[in-house]
Write a structure and sequence with these properties.
The complex is a heterodimer of chains A (653) and B (319). Chain A is α+β, with helices and mostly antiparallel strands and 653 residues long. In chain A, 49% of the residues lie in helices and 13% in strands. Classes of the chains: A alpha+beta (653), B alpha+beta (319).
Chain lengths: 653, 319
């Protein structure tokens, strides 16, 4: 009987169910619960049916179930497109397929779907853990395929697992060759479905009191950086992300109405550029990060600088994204600013925060220049009783800035940046809030720099007549350590810190090692794009890696590996050697009387002995001795002689 | 589709003819060398290929490294599997066994012993002619006999010009096979007619009693069982008593003797006559009667036993 049309039997069914269930379960993380209930239901039904006491559902029930599953997907997602809806549909359909598995062929279909369920998992996450979790899954699915797909009786499970493990292990070198050499393409053929409700910690395009606190507690990596040369000192590492120009008295947000490209002429470098490569974790947003200030001529493809100098990408970053930028640590921006920009960045709600307005207007009347007003404000933060703390009292009133500046005086970057910028606007100095990251930690193992969500920072930018836009970080006035040492060094003793900052030395080192590993993973596995591939091949010594060359090299290497494999398999299945006793005796028979031509195929030892000793009476004693020893060793349950005795007897000849 | 299928079948026939000419006839012990082992992906293998293609395109499009890596791993797995599948047959030894015989309409059995001389196990070995044999694994040094059943329809010599030994193990993605052209032929006996028509008048040996009810009168004693004794003469009571097989002996040849004549059945067609004669022979053999056969150009004297039966059936089969 052919395997495909063989009727489903219990071991085959169990292997298939194991593969299907194991590859479906990880989807629990991002799919609704009901496809899993449906699957549990059909799995139980199928198991009950194999006992023979229950029957599989008929056509009508199957159609109803299919319609219900389809409707369920539509209701959950309002679509059957998209990553999540698609995965849910795949899960539902495989659950339903279970109800019509009559032949082995149907089981094979389910096993192939299981492979696909593993791949869909990768579209949601590609971390080291996802990859590690996929190894047992692939192993189990392959074993299930082996136990199911051929007509052979299923092997014992240990043996099956070891055989499929061997197959997979032998496939690994081929995978590595193909992974390194198979040509990559630079752009997608079609759009990538977006994960609809991907909850990612990261900056948002607005800032209200408390919005950054959450980030400061997160150890998640925002991005990693590799500098061409030595990284700039920590206090200069301001990673510009978003510029918040709109202020409604409480919340700062991005001004989107006039989002247009920067005129590159308004930007002048005042120092040499620093080049670096950023590996940005997916945050599903359009903005990118760069040190202040990115050179407009060095931007990655598909991105641009807005007129408030935000680095923005045309498409959201849904996958690990690697890009290269050059930045000028010293620069001048917008010496002559547009009127509308000036007007926008001096706007505020005059009904809120009256005491702040009063203070600002007092400064305006006392001081002669904008620069002096800025210094006056910084002087205020530095010399009055302001404290840097990660657990400030809640500011709930509408006049939050008043409350902060004149009462609580405890806060961190967002409070200082927000109140400083409002003070400036109230005094007529164009000002806005910039959010991004500040600092970053160099990993001693690899030399790359890791910027975590806890490095999130907010600072201000003011426009001064002869200098253009100038960065002012009021937090640095209150707690210089924040920019010199990072958050951990700037919080007063005794205050509870998020776990990240509390780590012991050992944990800290472990974390650095883990981060180094992740950096390598991102760089060499996930970020192995076309450019990376070509760089890597050049590093390996391939000159001018063209498509043709890559394919030919790949095929040649695969040929070599496959050749080695077939030699290995041949060696493994070489003929069995006869045992030592047979070999010894056969050699004796060949050599004792060459003229007699050795022992004939159907000649018993005693017959041979009789024949040869008749022809050579002088050797009869030896022949009979050897024959008797041989027969004793071969046929007596507990031989009196040993192999070495036989060997001695033969050698004595 | 029909024309496609006809092209395929014609192509297959050409290929088989070519293989046959190349390999020559097989007999006795056959070791499969790689020159006569063929391997191609089967339907499941093609489906697997499409799965790989989908993964590859998806992985390239989304620049999803792990997806690509899995696609490459599975592609590598397919290549590795192909070699493992080929190894199941490579240097496999087959010993063509005895052929049985069968009555027309009943399957004839052929026996093939598969011998694994290698140090590695061989998996999923199957024989196929018209039907498929059992599927077996062979451990190193192991051997096992498989039987091939072939349907018979007409009496006379029937030869098997080819059978296939194949394996799809490990993953069922490839079909690896070898064609064997055995020098086998099997004698197919005529199909026995349905029981009903009683054989013609009986000549009874006068030395003994025809009537089994009075058979005891001729009972002369017991002797040890010899090969060829009819089971119905075994003294089962004696066997139950002391487990020694003894047969009852009768004086005289207490045997009913028939002579089955082809020409006596002149109201039937030729094949029907042969079928009827076959039926009679089987029945007479069953009952322990002696019988002879009178055919148009051959006469077989009355006798008993399996060799005689074989001779008669053979004569009928080849008539």
């Amino acid at each position: 009987m052919k395997a495909a049309t063989q009727v489903v039997d219990t071991p085959r069914l169990l292997w298939t169910l194991a593969a299907l269930v194991l590859t479906s379960l990880p989807h629990v993380m991002h799919l609704p619960w009901w496809p899993f209930v449906l699957m549990a239901f059909t799995v139980s039904w199928r198991l009950a049916a194999i006992t023979g006491r229950y029957r599989l559902p008929g056509v009508v029930v199957r159609l109803l179930l299919a319609a219900a599953g389809f409707a369920g997907v539509l209701l959950s997602y309002r679509s059957i497109n998209g990553l999540e809806a698609g995965s849910a549909l795949l899960l539902v359909m495989s659950a339903l397929k279970l109800t019509e598995t009559r032949y082995v062929r149907d089981l094979v279909v389910l096993i192939l779907i299981s492979y696909f369920l593993i791949v869909t998992q990768f579209l949601f996450a590609q971390s080291v853990f996802t990859a590690l979790a996929a190894i047992p899954a692939v192993w189990l699915v392959t074993t299930a395929l082996m136990q199911t797909a051929s007509a052979a009786p299923p092997l014992a499970w240990r043996r099956a697992l070891s055989r499929s493990g061997i197959l997979l292990a032998q496939a690994v070198p081929l995978m590595i060759i193909a992974f390194v050499l198979f040509p990559r393409f630079s752009g997608p053929f079609w759009a990538i479905p977006r994960a609809e409700n991907a909850a990612v910690t990261g900056l948002s395009d607005s800032m209200s009191p408390g919005s950054i606190t959450e980030l400061l507690e997160s150890e998640a990596v925002a991005f990693r950086v590799k500098f061409d040369g030595t990284p700039p000192p920590r206090k200069d590492r301001y990673w510009r992300g978003l510029v918040l120009s709109n202020f409604d008295g409480r919340t700062w947000s991005v001004f989107k109405a006039r989002d247009r490209n920067l005129n590159p002429d308004t930007l002048q470098p005042l120092s040499n550029a620093i080049g670096y490569e950023i590996m940005l974790e997916p945050h599903h947003q359009h903005w990118l990060f760069a040190l202040e200030q990115a050179d407009p001529a060095s931007l990655p493809r598909g991105s641009y600088l807005t007129n408030d100098r935000r680095l923005t990408r045309n498409k959201p970053v849904t996958q690990l994204y690697q890009y290269r930028v050059e930045s000028w640590p010293e620069y001048s921006a917008s010496l002559t600013a547009a009127d509308w920009e000036m007007r926008r960045d001096t706007q505020f709600d005059t009904r809120l925060n009256p005491r702040t307005q009063e203070l600002a207007q007092q400064w305006r009347s006392e001081l002669s220049s904008d620069a002096e007003i800025v210094n006056r404000a910084l002087y205020l933060f530095r010399n009055e009783q302001f404290f840097y703390t990660l657990s400030p009292p809640a500011l709930n009133r509408d006049d939050a800035v008043d409350e902060f500046l004149f009462q609580s005086r405890r806060g961190f970057c967002e409070h200082y940046a927000s109140s400083f910028s409002l003070l400036m606007r109230a005094a007529g100095v164009p000002a806005r809030v910039v959010v991004g990251y500040q600092g970053g930690e160099v990993n001693p193992y690899t030399g790359h720099m890791t910027i975590r969500q806890s490095d999130a920072h907010a600072w201000s930018e003011v426009w001064l007549p002869d200098r253009g836009w100038v960065r002012v970080d009021p937090t640095a006035a209150v707690a210089p350590a924040r920019v010199e040492l990072g958050v951990a060094g700037s919080v007063p003793d005794g205050e509870t810190l998020p776990s990240l900052f509390r780590a012991s030395q050992l944990l800290y080192n472990l974390q650095l090692g883990w981060d180094a590993f992740n950096n390598g993973w991102n760089e060499w596995v996930l970020g192995f794009s076309r450019n990376k591939q070509i760089d890597f091949l050049k590093l390996l010594g391939m000159r001018d890696p063209s498509l043709r060359k890559m394919l030919l090299t790949m095929l040649a290497l695969i040929g070599i590996v496959v050749g080695l494999l077939s030699v290995h398999l041949l060696w493994q299945s070489r003929p069995r050697r006869a045992d030592a006793l047979t070999r010894l005796y056969d050699r004796f028979c060949r050599n004792i009387a060459p003229a007699e031509g050795g022992r004939r195929p159907a000649e018993a030892p005693l017959h041979f002995a009789a024949r040869v000793s008749a022809a050579h009476p002088e050797r009869a004693d030896l022949i009979h001795l050897v024959t008797n020893l041989y027969l004793d060793l071969r046929y007596t349950p507990n031989p009196q002689t040993s192999l070495s005795e036989l060997r001695r007897a033969i050698r004595s000849a | 589709m029909a024309w496609l299928r006809s092209i395929f079948s014609r192509l297959r026939a050409r290929l088989r003819g070519w293989a046959r000419k190349r390999q020559g006839p097989d007999s006795g012990d056959i070791t499969l060398n790689s020159g006569r082992i063929y391997i191609l992906p089967n339907t499941q293998g093609i489906a697997f290929g499409f799965l790989l293609l989908a993964m590859l395109i998806g992985g390239l499009n989304y620049n999803n490294s792990l997806g690509l890596a899995l696609a490459f791993l599975l592609a590598g797995l397919a290549v590795v599997t192909m070699h493992h599948c080929h190894r199941n047959l490579s240097r496999l030894r087959l010993r063509l066994g005895a052929t049985g015989s069968a009555f027309a309409g009943h399957p004839a059995q052929f026996s093939v012993t598969l011998i694994n001389d290698a140090r590695a196990a061989r998996f999923g070995l199957t024989l196929r002619q018209q039907s498929t044999s059992e599927c077996i694994h062979l451990e190193p040094g192991e051997h096992q006999a498989l039987s091939l059943t072939v349907n018979t329809s007409r009496r006379g010599w029937q030869s098997i010009d080819r059978f296939t030994v194949f394996s799809t193990f490990p993953l069922g993605l490839f079909h690896c096979w070898a064609w064997i052209h055995p020098d086998w032929r099997v004698l197919v006996y005529p199909r026995p007619a349905p029981p009903g028509l009683e054989p013609p008048a009986v000549e009874t040996d006068t030395a003994g009693s025809a009537d089994r009810r009075h058979g005891d009168a001729d009972f002369s004693g017991l002797r040890n069982f010899r090969d060829g004794d009819s089971p119905r003469h075994i003294a089962w009571k004696a066997f139950a008593r002391d487990e020694s097989l003894v047969v009852r002996q009768y004086t005289g040849a207490d045997v009913t003797t028939h002579v089955f004549d082809y020409d006596s059945l002149d109201q039937m067609t030729g094949e029907a006559r042969i079928s009827q004669l076959t039926r009679w022979i089987l029945d007479a053999d069953q009952r322990g009667h002696a019988y002879g056969l009178r055919l148009p150009e051959q006469v077989i004297g009355a006798d008993l036993g399996p060799i005689h039966r074989e001779r008669c059936l053979r004569a009928l089969a080849l008539l």
